[in-house]
Specification:
Length: 377
Amino acid sequence: MIDRGRRRIAPIVGMVFAAAASGAASPAPPSDPFVVSVVATGLNTPWDLAWGPDGFIWFSERGGRISRLDPASGKRSTAGTIDVNQIGEGGLMGIAFHPDFASSPFVYAMHTRGGFLRMHNRLVRMRWNGRTLGPPETLLDDFPGAGIHNGSRIAVGPDRMLYVTMGDAGNGDNAQDLHSLGGKILRLTLDGRPAPGNPFDNAVWSYGHRNPQGLVFHPATGVLYETEHGPSGNDEVNIIRRGGNYGWPVVHGFCDDDIGPEREFCRAHGVVEPLVAWTPTIAITGADFYLSDRIPGWRGSLLATSLKAQTLFRFTLSPDGMRIAAKEPLLAARYGRLRDVLVAPNGDVYLATSNRDGRGSPERDDDRIIRLSPRSQ
């Protein structure tokens, strides 16, 4: 799904923005267990938020800048820049840190390169010297790329491997082709090579994906969860399994024959069904787990942002984590399109808006990073 969606602004939203622009806590419905404050403004489509080993929020902007943000003061500094092709949904996307950052201070990044007819995505790493990032070193090149469906979230697993989401780059046939990296979740070593133990003796960990936008390991169980854009229907939340086939482009969402003979394909190919699917789509994006008691009642929740629905979703999981027991929409249409969510070590929650991505209606101070904190400190 192209992540469309125009911003819906009720009269009260203008008051929310006016309060937020000052950095003060904004009005919130009495039922919300949090207050909202703005930490940074005037950004160019922030894409990925990551909690740095230095206690700062590091974030990418689609135009090619990686920044460090002091969550206490809101001061932003540029860590480095990458030459990217910011076209459509392409540009600078996912970032992640080497798990031994103190001794191997590498920052990983996915970005789009090339012209419109020869676009591709690239995995790079850069060395941090304490002041700035060095030049990008290419680890893996020539991922399928396009103006849509680039995926490109990065997560480091409990096994110390890199997991990278790749969209189908607008070609659904890529997703079922195990010789293509498009429409896949990849598992790589920290040097960007296919990881040992992968199911198909290449970089592919799972396949049959359309445009995977969120990727997060449960900090306690190690289970890998993914969020994925469908076409006009069937956005998904999935548990990612080794060698799993997630059905695209034949299967949209569940194996329920809603778009054709899906059940037969599912039986023949062992398709893994999602935990939940949305029709019409909400353009679900970034995801993170909440394992704090700082915001009451949220411990164990899976949080995910959405572009089209302009909402933060809080999912309550079943005790075994294999089912979504309840979902709660939050912040609907108050800040526009939401691209990513990050849970801080102290239990605060940070969100990145995406109103300058070409499909939103930006306000004066967009784009922003906002913080959710408990009402009582």
